Amino acid sequence: MSHTVRRRPYNLEAKMRMKQYRREAMLQRRQQELEEEQRTFQLDYTTIYQKGHPGTVQGVIKEIIHLGYIVTLPNGREGLLAASHLGCSGGIPLLERLFKVGQEITIRVIPVPNPAGKDRVYIRP
User: Which residue has the higher pLDDT, 45 or 114?
Assistant: First the structure.
């Protein structure tokens, strides 16, 4: 005995609405997580490099971007201090609270071979 499976008609509009609803819910949850992190994140300043630590240099924060900080190095090059290395997911409001443009920080530099690129910069051991 064979019987056919009865399917509902394919409704592309309904499928797209459901995808959009799920996407909006996901974005809203992510936004709430970022806002919560901005309110509660505290950088432990005892774990970052201090001035005079071996193998470190002084850099000046040039710009704050969503991913972290652009730091001017003593040799004139620029480096990226990633927000993830600070232990947070980034976001300009949070990063503006941690360090200010023009502030001098102690960093360790990992050179990147690309002469036009930015060096990799670390603030913690």
Answer: 45
